[in-house]
Amino acid sequence: MKLAILALLATAASAATLYDAPRPQVRALDSGENVAILRDDRLIDDEGKYNFDFETANGISVSESGSPVGEDGAINSAGSFSYTAPDGTPVHVEFVADERGFQPQSDLLPVAPEFPHPIPQFVLDQIAFAAEEDAARARGELRGANQPSDRYGAP
User: Coil, helix or strand for 66?
Assistant: First the structure.
């Protein structure tokens, strides 16, 4: 039994060295360093409304407030958080969380392209052609091969 465990450990160790890819240098999130809390304010009332704000010595700050809505126990909340990313970029995010979900806002979040985007001409041509066919069919001008079949796959 001991030999089998030893063989498994040796196999795992050799596999780890075979597949050990270089990793980017990132500052550890848990440095073991104690960080002073500069502010920690919390308020909760009897109706379930709450508000909290805290700030740490390393630049992290969080502010959030919320209140219950409806009979199902849901809570709408809004707030913001800020910190400095490992690469030194200041991060600030404002958010709302309600019946439409979590909705963050930040200059650092990716943005989808504007819509509607320009429609290519060949698509506009096809739409116009389909409209002409529909109008001709409504007037009874399309017959035979130009008329759509009501039997899919039939000769």
Answer: strand
User: Percentages helix, strand, coil for the chain, rounded to the nearest 5?
Assistant: 25, 30, 45
Residue 15: phi and psi, rounded to 5, are -65, -35
pLDDT for residue 3:
52
- Could you tell me which of 47, 88, 43 has the C-alpha nearest to residue 63? 43
Tokens at residue 88, please? 């030194």
- Length of the chain measured in residues: 155
The token pair that represents 106 in the structure block: 């930040």
Residue 60 to residue 132: CA distance in whole angstroms: 62
**Total-model pTM:** 0.53
> What residue ranges of the chain have pLDDT lower than 50?
15-28, 145
